[in-house]
Structures are given as structure tokens and as C-alpha cells.
Give the backbone structure.
Amino acid sequence: MTKPQIWVAAVLVLFLLLFLLEENTNRSDEQKKPAPNMSTQMQQSSQSKTAEQLVSSLGCTGCHGADLAGTKMAPNLHKVKEFWSRDKLINYLRNPSSFMASDRFKNYKAQYPSVMMPSFSNIDVKELGKIADYLLEMKK
Ligand code: HEC
């Protein structure tokens, strides 16, 4: 090879190396990017959520309806003030199955035979208090 040919070859090799290097860094950047998923949403401290946000993020609205006025799956929650004190309501949300004895709940069981009110005992009591206040303040 003549000297100029060596230079051309060297420059080509350099370009090739730079190209490969760039490809590689792009790929590892992509890998570092966290997949967009629920976790970022869930990391948002529930402490900062309003009762309305809690009621939708915990799925209450999924059963009781967007306005919590009841659906085919679950009863209207606009009347809870008639039935519950704040403490009782919080206890109920933590452990609904221990409040099934009353006639109202026997009727619910007949009306919504395939749906169960889930227990929210894994939720911070403060949050449940927020929800309870919200439900107890709701207009009929
Ligand atoms: C899977 C559906 C479902 C979800 C989710 C759900 N509920 Fe219920 N809820 C029910 C059903 C069904 C009943 C009727 C009682 C029963 O059958 O267990 C009920 C009953 C209740 C009652 C008692 C109503 C009364 O007349 O005293 C309250 C209060 C209540 N739910 C609040 C909530 C809140 C607050 C949330 C969210 C934190 C929630 N529910 C999430 C299905 C659901």
C-alpha cells in the first residue's frame, strides 16, 4: 500500500469505530430508561392524594360508579351518613365481612351475589379516614 492509501484506510477504520461506539451507547441509553409503567404512579405518595383521587385509585368507583351513586355491582354510597359513624365506617372499610349481619347487608348480598366489597386493611388508616370524611360529607 502507498502512504495515501494507508491514510484513507485508517480514516475509514476510525469512522467505523466511531459509528459502532455510537450505536452501543445509544443502546445502553435505551436500556437505562425505565419502562413507563404503573410503578411511577404508585410511587406518588398516597399521603398527597385527595379523597377523590383515592376513591378512584383504590377502585371504589369501579364498583360503586364514577359518582359513587351505585351500579349493578355495588350499592349507592351517598347515603352512608345515615348508617355509619366515622370510626365504624373506617372499621368497615378495613374489614367489611364482619359487618354482614344486618338486614341491609343481607339484602346487599342478595342484590350483588357475585360481588364482594373488598377489605382495605392494607391502606393507611389516615387515608381511610380521608375517604370516610369524604363519604360522610356527600350529599344524597
Ligand atoms: C369489587 C367491587 C367493590 C369495590 C372495589 C369497592 N366496593 Fe364497596 N361495596 C361493594 C359491594 C358489593 C357492597 C355491598 C356489601 C357487600 O355485598 O359486601 C359494598 C359496600 C360498601 C359500603 C357499605 C354501604 C352501606 O350501605 O353501608 C361502603 C361504605 C363501601 N362499599 C365503600 C367502598 C369504598 C370507600 C371503596 C374503595 C376504597 C369500595 N367500597 C370499593 C363492592 C365494592
User: Anything to note?
Assistant: Residues 88 and 109 are 20 Å apart (CA to CA).
